[in-house]
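To assess whether the prediction recovers the assembly geometry, we first specified each molecular entity separately, as shown.
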Amino acid sequence: MAPWRMAVMLAICIATSALTSAPVFAADESPMPKLDIGKGGKCVDDPKFMRKNHMDVLKHQRDETMRQGIRGGKYSLAACVDCHASKKNNSVLGSNENFCQGCHEYVEVKIDCFECHSSKRKVVAEVSK
Amino acid sequence: MSDTNLDRRQFLGRASVALAGLAIAPGMLLYEFSQARPLGEAASGKVRWGMLIDTNQCESGCNDCVTACNEENGLSGGTAPTDAQWIRKVELKDTGSGRITSLPVMCQHCASPPCVDVCPTGASFKRADGIVLVDKHICIGCRYCMMACPYKARSFVHETLTDQLTDVPRGKGTVESCTLCVHRVDKGQETTACAEACARGGHHAILFGNLNDPDSEISKRVRAVATTQIRADLGLNTGVRYQGI
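The predicted structure of the complete assembly is given in tokenized form:
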């Protein structure tokens, strides 16, 4: 095969792959779930980054905390709950509006964290004792 | 021969004194022992957490340590075979003399823990500072560790739990046991819920501290009085010691 024909084939391949991946980007424009962000405020990182990577940073930090006893890190599940627990039920679970449950139902990903970890904000729980 | 040896001994003796002086002079050792570990720092092997339980002070029928443990860690307090119990009060009776000894038994935080040896996933582990824990993220609930433990210290969570505490995550299908109040230790508190409750009740039978620090209260007591490790014959080098049994 002549070198110029190979170059054309390659160009066609790249163009096709770009086209087929286009619908993935279109998902950005579909309606996002309406979430009760609780206290909200400034997140520990860029919200776009957190949306995509929260599971990884949480897992990384959980191992350090569990195995080495390093506490007070930037990405803490308890801190997520503290900011994002709904002011209505003091939890990140409960309905499709609650922060964790709402998004996880939207993307259809099972959430295991709260089978063991508390989904409720700590401070209020202590006050109500 | 005795002359040459004497010289050598004197030299070694002086040298070791000088070395000891050097080690303490910059204040390094003393500083490290007296300061609590900062929040973002990993647990260090220079520390070994342990407890000394004085059974002469432990009152028969008193359950304060158990109640405090249950409250601190969000346990139900039930004593059925399927309920989690991290600490139990045990009464021993010497049939000959009739002397009754009362003592709490919990995870003994062994230096060579059999539960860690048998764990097929690595979930059961010993932290650098001697605290034996279960990483429930990778525990598969096989319960080999429960069979391996000579102290019956571990419990399996049989039912779905709700309303766990933020500091103490617990869940169905995993094994758990006394954590030596690791959430407190990591925050720099040098007391456990059981030791605190025992002191509050006026018994002061449980002393928590750093066994590696020669100046800690627990090290001084372990040095001064005869203490026992339960099943010392197994050679596990437990972090929990008993006095008066």
